[in-house]
Amino acid sequence: MIAELIRSCCGLELLAVKYKGKNVSIENLHQGFTHIFESTFESTEGVAEYVAHPAHVEYANLFLANLEKVLVIDYKPTTVRV
C-alpha cells in the first residue's frame, strides 16, 4: 500500500513535492524511516497554502493513516560558505 501511495503523490508535484526517495544509507542512522519527500517553498505563506490545499489534505490523510511514524521538518535554508 505504501509503494502505491508514494507513486500517487506525483499529482502533488505541481503543488510542491520536488524530490522523493528511498533510504539507501549504509550508516543505519535512519531510525526506521524509509522514505523522504522534500518540498521547497518561496515563503512561509507558501507552506501554509500547500498544507491547506485540498489535494494535499486528501493525500496526507490517506498517506498518514498507513504510516507507523512521521517526521516533518520545516526549516529556512541557509547557504554555507566553505
TrEMBL record:
Alphabetical list of SMART domains matching this protein: Dabb (SM00886)
Residues annotated as domain Stress-response A/B barrel: 1-75
Pfam family of the protein (one): Dabb
InterPro entries referenced in this protein's UniProt entry, alphabetically: Dabb, Dimeric_a/b-barrel, HS1/DABB1-like
Gene3D superfamilies: 3.30.70.100
Known partners and oligomeric status: Homodimer.
Protein name: Stress-response A/B barrel domain-containing protein
Organism encoding this protein: Citrus sinensis (Sweet orange)
